[in-house]
Amino acid sequence: MKITLQLLNQEGQVKTGLFSYDETVKPFKTTGDDLAVIGIKKMTWQAGDKIQVDIDQANQYLWVQLDETIAPTLIYLSQRQWIYTIAPDKRQLDIAFASQRHCIMVRKASTADVNAYRNLAFNPHDQVADTGAYPHASSNVAEETNPTFIAQNAIDGKLANISHGSYPYGSWGIHERADAALTIDFGRPVEINMVKLLVRSDHLERPHDGYWNQGTLEFSDGSQQVVVMDDSDTFQTVRFAPKVTSTLILKDLVPAEDSARFKALTQIEAYGYARN
């Protein structure tokens, strides 16, 4: 697989600079077979800059790590091009893309990687827009624009849940909506048999957070699985017969009686197999 990796400025032009000790300014662009890496010793990202990945075949599994602060991620790319925008909503400016040194990596995933039993919802590289890189999280809570409460926080692998707000306590907030729903789009059919939910539990100084005592998981064929929930500050697990689905929706969240006003989800995990 040919992989081309290039760094673009806000105008979509290829950024240029010095890779290391060389004295010649060069474009930050490279092409490789099954692997593309750009290492830079001095470059500053600007909000709105982009990382563009091009592959010669669509519907591929890739390992990506676009910044040292973001965990290596196995994504499914449904198209031949993926454009990742640096902090369009300033969500990551606290820690990510802040260094002047960079090692940006994209490589083809092995068959063993793809076929492993794993959390298929994990994607810390997810962005608010659907960029064709899956899994992708979205929500009907459109009025919640604060990046510390957007849907992407629920699949980023950050599990700190004893507080709320900015990093490292991002969560999916429901804006107190009774009909709040979170959707995970896998981008293709997968087979899952277990879902884990980690509810935010901010009780450091006062009962800031409440909880739900029930929710519903809905699959792409319309079938549903009721989930009994409680006020646990650890993962709550629901197991079921293997289900083939391209999406997973968490909805119909029922607040516990006399529960505190705010409710949020720190993380959702969905375990199973990719179906290739």
Automatic annotation (TrEMBL):
Upper classification of the organism: Bacteria, Bacillati, Bacillota, Bacilli, Lactobacillales
Name of the protein in question: Discoidin domain-containing protein
